[in-house]
Amino acid sequence: MAGVNAIKGKTRLSNSNLLFLIAAIIFVLMYLFAIILYPGSFLQFQTFFDLFNLNAPLIIMTLGLCIVMIGGGIDISIGAVCGLVTMACAFFLESGMGSIWGAILISLGIGIIFGVLQGYLIAYLEIQPFIITLSGLFMAQGLLTTLHKDPINVTVPAFVKLRDFDIVINWLGTRNRLGVFIPCEIKPGTIIVAILLVILASLMKWSRFGRNVYAVGGNANSANMLGINVKRTMFTTYVISGLTAGIAGFVYIMTTGAGNVGNAAGAEMKAIASAIIGGTLLNGGVGNLLGAPIGTLTLLVINELIRAAGVQSNFQAMVSGLLLYFFIVLQSIIMSLRDKRGFKMALPPWLSLSGKSQRGR
Amino acid sequence: MMRSLMKRFSHLFLPLSVMALLIIINLVKGADYFRITMVNGAFYGNIPNIFFGASELVILSIGMTLVTAASRGQDISIGESATITSAVFVQYVLQANEVTLLTILVAFLLSSVVGLALGAFNGTLVSIFKVQPMVASLILFTGGRSIAFMIDGKLSPILANDLSNKIGTVIPGIPIQTPIILTVIFIALIAVLFKTTNLRLYVEAVGTNPNAARLNGINPKKVIFLTFLIMGFCSAFAGFIAVNKAGRHDSVNLLKLIMMDAILAVAIGGNSLNGGKFSITGSIIGAYTIEMLNRTLLRLEIEPAMIKVFKAVFIIILMVVASPVVRASITKVVDKVRGKGRGASAAMTVKATGDGEKEE
User: Fold this and answer.
1) Min Cα–Cα distance to chain A from B42, Å
2) CA–CA separation, B200 and A116 (whole Å)
3) What is the pLDDT of residue A261?
4) Mutate to test the interface with B, among A135, A268, A316 (most CBs of B within 10 A)
5) Residues B132/A353, Cβ–Cβ less than 8 Å
6) Is residue A361 scored above 50 in pLDDT?
7) Do residues B51 and B180 make contact, with C-beta atoms less than 8 angstroms apart?
8) Helix (H, G, I), strand (E, B) or coil at A40
9) Rounded mean pLDDT of A42-63?
10) Which residue from A266, A264, A328, A275 is spatially nearest to A299, judged by alpha carbons?
11) Does B185 touch chain A (CB under 8 A)?
12) pLDDT band at A1, cuts 50/70/90?
């Protein structure tokens, strides 16, 4: 058993690790480049922490999405679910009888409901994940506008306290022009990101479930023959993704403090892009969860760089596109080079997102 | 005779039954659903409006069907490609001193060239670099609208000339709205293309098994590249219609999120999103069905905020009914019922599947 695991696991994981390594190196280079260009702002620790503080929801969503993508599926409903959660929480907190614990329960509940529904339809009824999660997106958006159309600013004192709560690191900080020492601040969202990252990464790396996800994403048929419960594994990945979307929603409202129709709109595409930059392949079977924050941060550093350069905001989207182009081509070239050296992937690299229609027939 | 017909059109069963269901709902709501009125020498009414509204979606879903069939993935940048091509079109028309038919034609050809180039960009990534189509088109999806905005130079330039107006609405003397005519012309062009060439066979072969296709002398790279080129032309054509309909080029909202509807049209049309055999007729009917669904929800006076929820529920029910697991269990149940009555032959089983779905 151990021998089989070592052979099968090693080729698969080394592939994941390679892509992760590329992403990490590029991120470090990018950040060094930013520091050289703008030493005043990027050399501050606070700038680095702010990347986490302000974008914690996106990183959390990317973590969940990465698991689904490693399992060979896709979930495009996460952004809309996140938005729905923010609005539901704001609505609940402002309704007069809301409490923070209730809001947390609501956000987790909404996430899990979406995850379970979509997971059941995709895994057990074998419907294409794109269509189901697309209708999940429609449904979440529709429920969001049905719930409340105007922005809700949460004014519950307990929540405002939580929103403004910062963890101050006294020994780390910078002096401003007047020489006043300003310590670094970390939002609770960053802590949640760190905790989730550790939990989910170790889950994927060391637990039986995590290895099953890699096997199912690599080749569902072989996984089925090995005795892995393919359907349950896929189902669980969608539940996790829904759950992370719910958590992301709560972190979002914890950061901004308001429920809005436009919250986290289009975040699914950003999350997909981050996951790809972080080294997760849409085919499934390849990826490293540590790449999720790396991918997100790379995308964000680019955006920050463009903003710092004072270029028109239009360029931001175009440069993001170019960056994606660069990464995709790089990944493709590396994979094909490895192919030539006798490395065989279980699936052709262009296989669609859900190449499991043959399963079970 | 009947049986062979049923076998041939069995893939159209899903979209047609959905359409029938929608028509029934509409008739229950009001009996005047099919009424067509003549305003200023052109037909208006519910049915012409559906044809009018769905024209871009139909064209895009044709391209999407081909891309899906050959490359086993979806192009999500079609709306953005159409925005870029129509920006080029608008800029050429606006810089002309006098807008004649020739100007429009040259502008359209120019935008088609841009569309082909965008298709080639996606196609190169997918066929040569072997990137999944959705990832490859994510690039244009991210940056496309910004490119269109830069071509525009300013916010939403207005197409205020007589000819564009005619293309967007009606030409005096012809009772049918021009976008409908253009769509019909496009469908005819595609039909001729498929009748005269081997494209259908090649695309299906590549989509079913690229390696087997390659061993049989079909170059999968070329075929996939070609489908993306066709997709590019489709988006140029759709952008042309959309911008003339709207009368102004709004690079932020033009054909926004239409790829979702196009992919949905392909799926409702009975096509597998995993490539292989495809039916363009199914996709066309699927596209009209989606437009009909949108307009039905409006007609039922559902609160605008709730429309998306209803749409989602409708799609989910549709996909559950059409899913392989449910289909198999229905066949089993129907087989059992039939087997008790008389010996069920294999041919009857095929028919039974159809009957089983009808009961849903």
Assistant:
1) 35
2) 39
3) 82
4) A135
5) yes
6) no
7) yes
8) helix
9) 85
10) A275
11) no
12) very low
Cβ under 8 Å to B: A residues 261-280: 269, 272-273, 276
| Residue to test with chain B: of A74, A117, A276, A352, most B Cβ within 10 A | A352
Chain A 127-186, residues with CB within 8 Å of chain B CB atoms: 127-128, 130-132, 134-139, 141-143, 145-146, 149
pLDDT digit string (tens) for B44-62?
888 888 899 899 999 999 9
Nearest to B82 by CA among B124, B115, B119, B121: B115
CA-closest candidate to residue A80, choices A122, A128, A138: A138
Q: Residue B215 is encoded by which pair of tokens? A: 């061993």
Q: What is the pLDDT of residue B2?
A: 63
CATH code, domain with A226 = 1.10.3470
Side-chain half-sphere of A172: how many Cα atoms within 13 Å? Answer: 13
**pLDDT: is A356 or B204 the higher one?**
B204
Q: Which of B159, B158, B177, B157 is nearest to B48 (CA)?
A: B177
Q: Where are the domains of chain B?
A: 13-322, 323-360
Is A350 inside any structural domain?
no
In a domain? residue A358: no
> How many Å apart are CA A66 and CA A282, to the nearest integer?
9
**A343 φ, ψ (degrees, to nearest 5):** -80, 125
Q: Which of B74, B122, B132 to mutate to test the interface with A (most CBs of A within 10 A)?
A: B132
CB contact under 8 A, A314 and B150: yes
Question: Are B150 and A146 in contact (CB < 8 Å)?
Answer: no
The string of pLDDT tens digits covering residues B67-89 is 999 988 889 899 999 999 999 99
Q: CB pairs below 8 Å between A and B: how many? A: 163
Confidence of residue A349 (pLDDT cuts 50, 70, 90): very low
Identify whether the C-beta of residue A276 lies closer than 8 Å to the C-beta of residue A295: yes
Question: How buried is residue A312: exposed, middle or buried, by Cβ count under 10 Å (0-12/13-18/19+)?
Answer: exposed
pTM: 0.80
Q: Which of B74, B306, B324 sits opposite A142 (nearest CB)?
A: B306
Going A134 to A136 to A137 to A141, the CA torsion angle's sign is: positive
Instruction: Look at residue A192 and tell me if it is in a domain.
Output: yes
Q: Within an 8 Å CB–CB cutoff, is residue B141 touching chain A?
A: yes
Chain A residue with Cα closest to B224: A350
Q: Within an 8 Å CB–CB cutoff, is residue A329 touching chain B?
A: yes
The token duo for B22 is 């929608």
Tally the domains of chain A: 1
Token pair recorded at residue A105: 């329960």
Architecture of the CATH domain B13-322? Orthogonal Bundle (1.10)
DSSP state letters, A149-167: SS-EE---HHHHHHHT--E
Whether A65 maps to a domain, the answer reads yes
Q: State what percent of residues in chain B have pLDDT above 70.
A: 91
Q: Which two tokens stand for residue B112?
A: 């088609």
Of the residues B308, B321, B326, the best mutation for testing chain A's interface (the one with the most A CB atoms within 10 Å of its CB) is B308
What are the contacts of B258-261 at 24+ separation with CB within 8 A?
B258/B56, B258/B57, B258/B60, B258/B78, B258/B79, B258/B82, B259/B60, B259/B64, B259/B74, B259/B75, B259/B76, B259/B77, B259/B78, B259/B79, B259/B141, B260/A134, B261/B57, B261/B61, B261/B287, B261/B290
- Which band of pLDDT confidence, cut at 50, 70 and 90, is reported for residue B66? very high
Which residue bears the tokens 């096509």? B271
Is the Cβ of B350 closer than 8 Å to some Cβ of chain A? no
Find all residues with CB under 8 Å of A330, minimum gap 6, and list them: A22
Q: Which domain, by its residues, includes A39?
A: 13-340
Helix (H) and strand (E) counts for chain A? 14, 4
